Amino acid sequence: MMNEMQMLADVRLYLGLHSSFIIPHSAFPLAFGFLTPAFALAGLLLAAIPIIIHILNRRRYKIVTWAAMEFLLNAMKKNRRRLKFEQWLLLAVRCLVLGLLGLALARPLGCENASLAGLGASRSGVHVFVIDNSYSMAYEVDRPGAPTHLAQAKVIAKGTIDRLSRGGESVAIVTASSPAAAIGNGKPTYDLDAAKAAIDRIEQSAGGTDIQGALQLALQIGRDESKQPVRSLYLLTDCTKSAWETSQSNAVKQTAAELATVFKITNFNLSRGQQSNQATIDVSPGSNLLTTKFPVDYRTTVRAFGSPAELPLQWKINDQLQSGGGLVKLDSQTPAQTLSNVSIKTGGPAVITASLAGGDKLPIDNTRYLVSMVASELKVLIVEGERGMGGAGGSGAFLQLALSPPKTSDRLINGNFKTDSYVSAESIGSLELAGKVLTDYSAVAMADVGQITAQQADRLADYVKNGGTLLWFMGEQVSSDNYNQMLVPRKLLPGPLAKRMSVASDQTGYLFDFKPRAPMHRLLNIFAGEDRSGLDTAQIFTYWSVVIPNESGVERVLDYLPAGSKPGATTSKDKSTAADPAITSHALGRGRVVFFSTSAGPEWTSFPAKPAYVTLMHEMLGGSVTSGDAWLNRTVGQAIELPTSIQVSGQPTLTDPAQKSIVLTPGAVGSAVAFRSEPLTRPGIYTLNVGTRTLPVAVDVPSDEADVRTLDNPAIKSALGNVEVELLQDQLPPEAVSTQAGNDFGWSVMLIVLIMVGLECFLAMQFGHTRRVLVKA
Amino acid sequence: MSETPTDYRKYLDPRTLARISSLDLRARLIVEGLMTGMHRSPYQGISVEFAQHRPYVAGDDIRHVDWKVFGRSDKIYLKQYQEETNLHLICVVDSSESMGFTSFDKETFGPWSKYDHATAIAASLSYMAIQQQDSVGLAVFDQALSRYFKPSNSPSQWRLITQELQTIPKWNKTNTGKILDQLAEKLTHRSLIVILSDFFDDLESIKKGLRHLRYKKHEIMMFQILDPQEIEFPFEDVTMFKGLEEMGELLTEPRSLRAGYLEQLKQFTEGLQKLCRSMNIDFVRMNSGESLDVTLSGFLANRAASMK
């Protein structure tokens, strides 16, 4: 008895403290609460309405002078107690009707007690299904009625929904194919048939898995539905390692920890035993420089996940079968396969296809496409701050000679000349820059340009962000104040120019910190082991010291030896403080900026006279320019983003491999994207027509999805941060996953309300409040 | 140019009568309307003095057919005689405040209280009595006998009675039993006493007064006049009832009291009827909203039967 009283006291305390309340099941044997407590409060307020009406009626009355008053008084005297009782009874019934109506709408929630639960009409709760429809879920298994993992996921999800209580329990569905999406904007539906139909409509995607995104969406739904007494989360996935063991593993664990506080989590592992798959997971060119002048190698990575296999590899270029390839032994460590010395004689896009012949249980990833933009020439614009006489001897003359040496030395035409080089270098004065269309050039080199205007800086920044390469060379003309003001804020320099470093004319110049056998930047790899490159002996008499901010992403290609150090000596490990950078490289948007802290010519350095000069300039150019075809190579789930650098005439059109038209919408004003598609769903070669020409677009299955090796249940629990999770296999268990908790008594109370309404009508009639009797005189 | 019977019968409807201000005219029209619709006049019987012939209409007693006329003209006429009676009719009209109650809207219906209904009946009966040379007297009372006219059959009596009945009462309380006692003492000649009242008074007191009248061998007729609202009690909303004759106030929801009230009214009326039956008194309950002919013709037929 005392315990019960204590419990009631606790309940009162709880009600007083919480406006929205659901008493935890563990706290009381009779857990209760309201789904929408506001209605309960409204019901209490509404219950006062009959009393208010009663009081108002007593104050607002008609006045009648009456002759037969004695009969009235006698009737009143005789029936006073009965009348009072009737009035109180009616008033109580009316108050109860309104109060109970509010209670019914507030959805009083049930309890763990089975007999009481039997009185409740239905359970209440929200059930969130995260259905993995990524490419790996298309894996075929011998399962009756559900040939793929996704089909089985749908069977389990619909079976679970069939066990839910109609009207009381709602369903939300999240698809985990990248990008994860919540069906119906994540709003749970009480229409269980509609939910099942929505599950049936989930399409098999060829995209990757976005577990973290899906869990975040589920978490959001759970938080939005926090008032539901029962919240269940069902994960239906094939539990591939590639989907769960990613760079986002920690984020997944963190999200899972939050999910465990909101949901009861159940994981259905749909994988079956050891799964195996063979796939082509990558195709790439051997060099950034793809021109019609040089042959290039193409590499592909082929793998067998699970069981090893031996399959023939086929290469195609523009649908023409190539002679490379052959039978390849496939396992998880198969070395890259190369198609060597591919000469593409026509400039423009070329479609390279590498495919493994022979079917497996995930056939689409056996073929991979690559669109390569092959340039007929690499156009470089050299902007000179100081022009030479007759076009020669300018601040960029040595650079031009290095990049595109002339066929004959005596055929200068306005400072430019014919060349057999793959590079076509054009030299102009800084004043001519305004008249040039920068997107016509693969790279722009600024050699000793003194002042940069804000307009020029903006143009250069846009050019780089859209994929261009910008090379800076210092010189006498350079104004550090102007550069720091115009270029540093636009990230067109690695950092502010701090100090001009010079040596006296009778002193030895500064040296590059280059050791042929020490680790070096990739752009210098060509000099590795080369003792006579001249890089370590070239003297630099003047250079601009630049301060590189921390975590700026700037790569130091080559540094100067600190003053007083000898070549080959061990330098400080902390290069950022010990040495000034000589050459840096950093990304900006889709392009790169290369900074050379001394002059391009012999004004400040003896380096142009060294054999390494020409090679280094080509390496810097070749290693920095991009072929500009990254946007033509997409994976499923990504969108096509047409850069503004591509000339478009009219509305571009995009068709998928099935010739279905894909809508392209204009990008935001001022952005680098001219047009953008929705995330692509079908792998293969798309066709983009920009009016002036037609471009192929390669859309491949995410390479991660090819790895169908799976995690077992303990590993899944670990991947979820060891939170409480029910781990099930690929079959719905015979026992319902639902519980008796959360029974919704709303309809039961509504039934009582209806009975009370009927009672009120009966009483009102019985007490003569509605009855009219004709009395004859 | 003669009027059709229906033209006169409309004057039996209170809605019509309420628009006629002259009680004299009201009474004449009531009587005309009443007589036009009757096949057999209760006051033209088999007396000694011939009055006139009139054509036979279906339903007439063939004993009154003048066969001589029929033999001469092949037309059936009835002989009518002037009845000679020696009747003293005393109309006793209650003018207490409760009789002034009306539920009719003056705008749409006209002024028609229970008192108006009573005076119309009293005037009509008086008119008929004087027409056949009977003596008519009048007593108007509330808590006291405010006016009394001795019975007389002179033509001026009719004018006195109508004038008195048209006088607006003082609307005092009532004391029926005491008044009946006083009346019994005043009347020396056996009379037909017609009491027009709602009888909202003490039943025992009324009984005592009636017994006194009956003891003096008077014949009594009681007309209980009630308003339609008093009979039906049709109120719905919360109402403050302010009692007439200083009966106090009552704020109540009338729907819940309706059954109890009607029961009380029924008990009182039944008590009154029982009392009348025990004293051989004719009792008629009248609804002031209904036509007068039903009650008046019933009364006249009843009287005719009793005179035979």
Helix content of chain B: 40-55%
**Overall number of strands of chain A:** 36
The total of helices of chain B stands at 11
Q: What value does the average pLDDT of chain A take?
A: 82
Order of helices and strands of chain B: HHHEHEEHEEHHEHEHEEHEH
- Strand count, sense and closure of the main sheet of chain A? 7 strands, mixed
Q: Overall 3D geometry of chain A?
A: elongated
Structural class per helix/strand content of chain A? alpha/beta
Distance between the termini of chain B: 36 Å
Q: Averaged pLDDT of chain B, please? A: 79
Describe the structure.
With about 775 residues, chain A is α/β, with parallel strands linked by helices. In chain A, the strands form 9 sheets. Chain A has a 7-stranded mixed sheet, sandwiched between helices. A 6-stranded mixed sheet of chain A has the order 5-4-3-6-7-35, with helices on both faces. In chain A, a hairpin with a 2-residue loop joins strand 10 and strand 11. In chain A, helix 2 packs antiparallel against helix 3 and helix 7 packs parallel to helix 9 (about 250-260). In chain B, helix 3 (about 25-35) packs across helix 5, helix 5 packs antiparallel against helix 6 and helix 7 (about 175-185) packs parallel to helix 8. Chain B has about 300 residues and is α/β, with parallel strands linked by helices. The interface between A and B is large, with 34 and 47 residues.
